[in-house]
Design a protein that fits this description.
The protein is an all-alpha fold. It is built from two helices and no strands.
Length: 86
């Protein structure tokens, strides 16, 4: 007998309360992520909980990609500098 330890993940569109207005915490987090992602269009005070969740996931992914890209660029510059010295 096999027991799954991973929780089921509910899709925001299927949430019982997904049509309710987003929470204050969602609004605050989305606004911060939108600013970090330089995407002012992502924040809309009229989003539902489900929409806010989807926007948060998208902005988190965008910020993470930008951070990874910057880190890769920094490492590349450092590697090139090491090669010039050696």
């Amino acid at each position: 007998m096999s027991i799954s330890l991973s929780p089921s993940i509910a899709v925001p569109d299927e949430w019982v309360s997904g049509d309710e207005p987003m929470t204050g915490a969602q609004a605050s987090y989305l606004k911060t992520l939108s600013e970090k992602a330089k995407d002012s269009n992502a924040f809309d005070e009229k989003l539902t909980k489900a929409e806010a969740s989807e926007h948060i996931d998208a902005r988190k992914a965008k910020v993470q990609r930008e951070l990874t890209s910057r880190q890769d660029s920094s490492e590349s510059i450092f590697d090139n500098a090491k090669g010039a010295v050696g």
